[in-house]
Amino acid sequence: MANTTAELEALLMQRSLTDPQLLAAAETSADYRILPDATVVKIGGQSVIDRGRDAVYPLVDEIVACRKNHQMLIGTGAGTRARHLYSVAAGLNLPAGVLSQLGASVANQNAVMLGQLLAKYGISDVTGAGLSAVPLYLTEVNAVIFSGMPPYGLWTRTAGEGVIPPYRTDAGCYLVAEQFGCKAMIFVKDENGLYTGNPKTDKDAKFIPKISVDEMKARGLHDSILEFPMLDLLKAARHVREVQVVNGLVPGNLTRALAGEHVGTIITAS
Predict the structure, then answer these.
(1) Rounded mean pLDDT of 134-157?
(2) Nearest 5°: CA angle at 13, between 7 and 17?
(3) Residue 106: exposure state from Cβ atoms within 10 A (0-12, 13-18, ≥19)
(4) Which of 89, 132, 136, 193 is 20 to 30 A from 34, comparing alpha carbons?
(5) Using CA atoms, how far apart are residues 74 and 114, in angstroms rounded to an integer?
(6) For the purposes of burial, counting CB atoms within 10 Å of the CB of 186, is it exposed (0-12), middle (13-18) or buried (19 or more)?
(7) Residue 239 has pLDDT above 70, yes or no
């Protein structure tokens, strides 16, 4: 290890940070899993929170019960209000970076609302630099809430087409799971998982219990249940190499998924 470290340091001083030999040397260093016992749970904005108390209150009760046995980082989606903001801002010809900030404001609002509902149980929402306090929250109460929108703002990568930010709350929550080295990533939506078509409009759509990223792309399903740039993040991952999409409107689904059961659709990196 000492020789490897010395080689890496020498290369860092001498080469470009994109040099192939430098990247290969850096690759030999194993990533440290910061929160290997925690699960990131993304609560959909449009699919769950926008439905109001009938959808949110049962999920709050389930979260409170689950935190006895599971560490959870709970991320919030943006939802319908963000879509309205995107529509207005795009009509004003504003760039993706501005739309990203607007979408983040709605995801933040959802995190605050969920945080207030869970406050009496000691479960708080954190913002920005507050993520550094996540280990303390998990140690004390086994759960914490954060806004799912990644904080790119004006630094958002430009989308290939249009001005809708390509990395939104699905990607933001997944990146937290991957970078913290968490054990699992669960997306809580309003469908049982992935289908061959839109189950809301296609009565012949068939449920898909498990599928890989490449299979999704080959079948044209990569823009159906999750933000499709997130699938490329999954393909490149070191720790979280699969995610599960579950129906949060069905009581007990989140509990079962946290326990490791195959409840909805599992999407694998390979």
Answers:
(1) 94
(2) 95
(3) buried
(4) 193
(5) 9
(6) buried
(7) yes
